[in-house]
Design a protein that fits this description.
Elements lengths: L1 H13 L9 H16 L9 E2 L13 E6 L3 E8 L7 E9 L9 H11 L9 E6 L3 E3 L5 E3 L16 H11 L7 E5 L1 H8 L11 E7 L3 E7 L8 E4 L12 H8 L8 H6 L1 H17 L5 H8 L6 H9 L6 H5 L3 H33 L9 E6 L1 H5 L3 H17 L3 E4 L4 H10 L3
Parallel strand pairs: 2-5, 5-8, 9-12, 12-13
Antiparallel strand pairs: 1-11, 2-3, 3-4, 6-7, 9-10, 10-11
Helix pairs in contact: 1-12, 2-12, 3-4, 5-15, 6-8, 8-9, 8-10, 12-14
């Protein structure tokens, strides 16, 4: 077994992908430098987007209509928040996101959404929207759509103000449009939503961590952009400063957005299948496995993240990857390769989270750790990722930097966080 582990380590090291050859503190300083540049408006792969929202306790208990506009479905509900109590959620509605199955204009897109929330629209004059597409927040807490989605057939959506368009849609649907509207994204919702978890503990501050199809971080910048504290959407998945290996580079070269979002392509669920396919084919080409296994791995196409987890959880099972293994050493070497790549993902995520803690100035006191709301299927279901991330946060955060943080799952965090945003004006 030790020979198989060494074989995997040597292979990844030869391709610049072995996690122990990454210098965490050096990479942390590079990440912090990009954060500072982004905040200062200098060239940076980190956008550091101002949200014009503050990390403050909610004081109002009135209901908020919440819309979660995703890539396939729109969820809506009426949410009422009370201090120290779980969110009270009623009037759940769900319908397909318009523009997915057919082309339409932005005006029709928002009118259909307005009609979809008609049963609950009179229950509050506040609306909070969590919008899945990239937006640019505005000072009035509306947001302008700045990027489309591959599955959304709404060509004129870009450039529109989401809240303003929804109010127009309400008016055109014959509904009350006299609403205040706040628009955020899922990482901002995760940051805010942590405050709704009833707890008798005191935390130093809150961070939102998305680790699913993509990855992102939000934190509260003490000086914001105008001298006041403000939640910053880091867009951490876009970071391009981590050391990449030649297989990372080859995988990136085959994608439509070459050179962009390099961090996300190294660690997140949406890219795991493609990157691992490249790694395994290279390993097969270098004869790390028996000839039968190499042949099987070379024939694999369209590897999915769930198949990686299936093998890691049941390496002697009946999945596609397990079926490729012709000998026990094949199985052990394949497991070691995947496990080591997970270690790299955990280390890089720990670096980015420690950087967010340092910028926020939170978690230096173990009695007041940072509260990290973790969202995303990859965080919760990727084999051993959570345990490896905890370990890396201890090694880098606690032992080297004196930073303390704890991860939490917050039920219905998107609805809860978006409701807090809706109460901000």
């Amino acid at each position: 077994m030790q020979d198989c582990q060494k074989k995997a380590v040597d292979f990844l090291s030869s391709h610049g992908m072995y996690y122990k050859e990454i210098a965490p503190e050096k990479e942390l300083q590079k990440f912090l430098g990009e954060m500072a540049d982004g905040l200062a408006g200098k060239p940076s792969s980190l956008k550091m987007i101002p949200t014009y929202l503050q990390e403050t306790d909610f004081t109002k208990s009135e209901p908020v209509i919440v819309l979660d506009i995703g890539g396939t479905h729109v969820r809506s509900a009426v949410v009422r928040l009370e201090k120290g109590q779980p969110p009270k959620i009623s009037g759940h509605l769900e319908f397909p996101t318009p523009g997915v199955n057919r082309s339409m204009c932005a005006r029709e897109f928002f009118r259909i959404i307005a009609q979809g929330i008609a049963p609950i629209v009179d229950q509050s004059d506040r609306i909070g929207i969590c919008f899945s597409l990239a937006t640019k927040p505005q000072k009035d807490k509306d947001a302008i759509v700045v990027a489309g989605g591959k599955q959304l057939q709404v060509p004129d959506l870009l450039g529109n103000r989401v809240g303003e368009c929804l109010r127009t849609g309400l008016r055109e649907a014959g509904l009350d449009d006299r609403k205040s509207v706040v628009v955020i994204n899922d990482s901002v919702a995760a940051t805010l939503g942590g405050r709704t978890m009833a707890s008798d503990r005191d935390f130093g501050g809150y961070i939102g961590f998305i680790y699913g199809t993509g990855t992102n971080i939000c934190y509260s910048e003490p000086m914001g952009f105008g001298g006041e504290s403000m939640i910053i959407n880091v867009e951490s998945g876009a970071y391009c400063g981590f050391p990449t290996g030649d297989i990372d580079d080859r995988y990136d070269a085959g994608l439509i957005d070459v050179g962009q979002d390099r961090f996300e392509k190294m660690v997140s669920g949406g890219y795991q299948g493609g990157l691992m396919t490249c790694i395994l084919r290279q390993a097969a080409g270098e004869q790390l496995f028996t000839s039968g296994c190499c042949e099987g791995l070379n024939s694999i196409q369209g590897l999915k993240p769930k198949e990686i987890d299936e093998f890691l959880n049941r390496p002697c099972g009946s999945g596609r990857l397990a079926a490729c293994c012709a000998a026990d050493d094949d199985r052990t070497t394949l497991y070691a390769l995947m496990d080591l790549i997970t270690e790299r993902s955990a280390l890089l995520c720990a670096i980015s989270l420690c950087a967010a803690q340092m910028r926020a100035g939170i978690g230096q006191d173990p009695c007041h750790p940072a509260f990290i709301t973790a969202e995303g299927s990859t965080f919760y279901f990727s084999k051993d990722f959570r345990a490896k991330l905890d370990c890396q946060m201890r090694l880098l955060g606690r032992e080297k930097l004196g930073l303390y943080a704890e991860f939490f799952h917050v039920p219905e965090v998107t609805l809860a966080g978006t409701a807090i945003a809706g109460l901000s004006i």
